[in-house]
Amino acid sequence: MTHNVAILGASGYTGAELVRIIATHPNLRIAALSADRKAGQAMGAVFPHLRHLDLPMLTKIEDIDFGDIELVFCALPHGLSQAIVRDLPRSVKVVDLGADFRLRSTEDYKRWYGLDHAAPEMQPEAVYGLTEFYREPIRQARLVAGTGCNAATVQFALRPLIKAGVIDFDDIICDLKNGISGAGRSLKENMLFAERSTDVMGYSIGGKHRHLGELDQEFTMIAGRKLEIMFTPHLVPINRGILATCYVKGEAEGIHAALAKRYADEPFLNVLPFGEAPSMGNVTGSNFCHIGVIGDRKAGRATVIATLDNLNKGSSGQAVQNANLMLGLDETEGLMLAPVFP
Ligand SMILES: NC(=O)C1=CN([C@@H]2O[C@H](COP(=O)(O)OP(=O)(O)OC[C@H]3O[C@@H](n4cnc5c(N)ncnc54)[C@H](OP(=O)(O)O)[C@@H]3O)[C@@H](O)[C@H]2O)C=CC1
Ligand SMILES: CC(=O)N[C@@H](CCC(=O)OP(=O)(O)O)C(=O)O
């Protein structure tokens, strides 16, 4: 059976990645694509790597007829999708890739994003889109909130360890590297090649990154008490990819066993043999996440490393995985393509 989908924000990085994935999906058909500045252009003109595809023109959102659309992927900037999602027909299912519905409380949203929420009544309805941990609610959901890409990577490394209680909750330090495409395609002066191509810098240091809102929300829920990790992201000169290095206190082999057990049946989450370190380059362009555990020279300490592609498993791949569940399809449909290498 074919399901008609629309992609709002198709002229951005995650929108283009959605099109790339859906192009070979056996059950999804792209019925509409929206853009803002690029409205009126052909997708293949904006993204020549997609020019072989027969796709609808990019139009303004207000020109889309949602009558025959079953599911909308919303790949719009923060703060924009809440009012748009609120006004869509209730018959349309929504996967939002942005941050507007990730936090369950209006106060938390205001604290981390500095905005009053335009659709607070919809916040409780939204299901957090970390597929491997919210699979059953996602199947039933009308609205799924895609996770932050950094937040997904950190959670894949740590959630089973917090749940199993095999690490010290008060001593978790996470250092993360991520690529430039995480900042989106709109021109930003500090993202220019001359400034980024040979530089590395940390940002939102000191517990200020907005993904801590969702990490606090999720980890506190699992731990059953307030849990606030230390977290610093760094921008590195690569196109795509996230690698989170988490320093934890606990017995390293037990930590590896807890992750291996939890992810044994997960098609996209691969726990490497004990002592092996994952590499970002081994997941590029795919919906896979690799996780490694390495013991420390000092007993009782371990390093847990998780890596994924921010534009795929960190956003658009996750979005298609969730859409598959919402539409009653096989979760892996359209997503089993191997990573690009080298
Ligand atoms: N990049 C990433 O790695 C990740 C991104 N996300 C989230 O996904 C969402 C999209 O991100 P990304 O693809 O990187 O963003 P981009 O900046 O690359 O793309 C944004 C898209 O939104 C459109 N748009 C911008 N302003 C408006 C407006 N006022 N009205 C209608 N459409 C508008 C743009 O159209 P046009 O270009 O034509 O103006 C473009 O299609 C964001 O919420 C982001 O936080 C989530 C996880 C990872
Ligand atoms: C390089 C860069 O700026 N990365 C972004 C995260 C990517 C992302 O898109 O996450 P959201 O959906 O929450 O925006 C950051 O760390 O803020």
Automatic annotation (TrEMBL):
<comment type="pathway">
    <text>Amino-acid biosynthesis; L-arginine biosynthesis; N(2)-acetyl-L-ornithine from L-glutamate: step 3/4.</text>
</comment>
<feature type="active site">
    <location>
        <position position="149"/>
    </location>
</feature>
<dbReference type="GO" id="GO:0003942">
    <property type="term" value="F:N-acetyl-gamma-glutamyl-phosphate reductase activity"/>
</dbReference>
<keyword id="KW-0028">Amino-acid biosynthesis</keyword>
<dbReference type="InterPro" id="IPR050085">
    <property type="entry name" value="AGPR"/>
</dbReference>
<comment type="similarity">
    <text>Belongs to the NAGSA dehydrogenase family. Type 1 subfamily.</text>
</comment>
<dbReference type="Pfam" id="PF22698">
    <property type="entry name" value="Semialdhyde_dhC_1"/>
</dbReference>
<protein>
    <recommendedName>
        <fullName>N-acetyl-gamma-glutamyl-phosphate reductase</fullName>
        <ecNumber>1.2.1.38</ecNumber>
    </recommendedName>
</protein>
<comment type="function">
    <text>Catalyzes the NADPH-dependent reduction of N-acetyl-5-glutamyl phosphate to yield N-acetyl-L-glutamate 5-semialdehyde.</text>
</comment>
<dbReference type="Pfam" id="PF01118">
    <property type="entry name" value="Semialdhyde_dh"/>
</dbReference>
<dbReference type="GO" id="GO:0051287">
    <property type="term" value="F:NAD binding"/>
</dbReference>
<keyword id="KW-0963">Cytoplasm</keyword>
<dbReference type="GO" id="GO:0005737">
    <property type="term" value="C:cytoplasm"/>
</dbReference>
<dbReference type="InterPro" id="IPR000534">
    <property type="entry name" value="Semialdehyde_DH_NAD-bd"/>
</dbReference>
<keyword id="KW-0055">Arginine biosynthesis</keyword>
<keyword id="KW-0521">NADP</keyword>
<feature type="domain" description="Semialdehyde dehydrogenase NAD-binding">
    <location>
        <begin position="4"/>
        <end position="141"/>
    </location>
</feature>
<dbReference type="InterPro" id="IPR000706">
    <property type="entry name" value="AGPR_type-1"/>
</dbReference>
<dbReference type="GO" id="GO:0006526">
    <property type="term" value="P:L-arginine biosynthetic process"/>
</dbReference>
<dbReference type="InterPro" id="IPR036291">
    <property type="entry name" value="NAD(P)-bd_dom_sf"/>
</dbReference>
<keyword id="KW-0560">Oxidoreductase</keyword>
<dbReference type="InterPro" id="IPR058924">
    <property type="entry name" value="AGPR_dimerisation_dom"/>
</dbReference>
<dbReference type="GO" id="GO:0070401">
    <property type="term" value="F:NADP+ binding"/>
</dbReference>
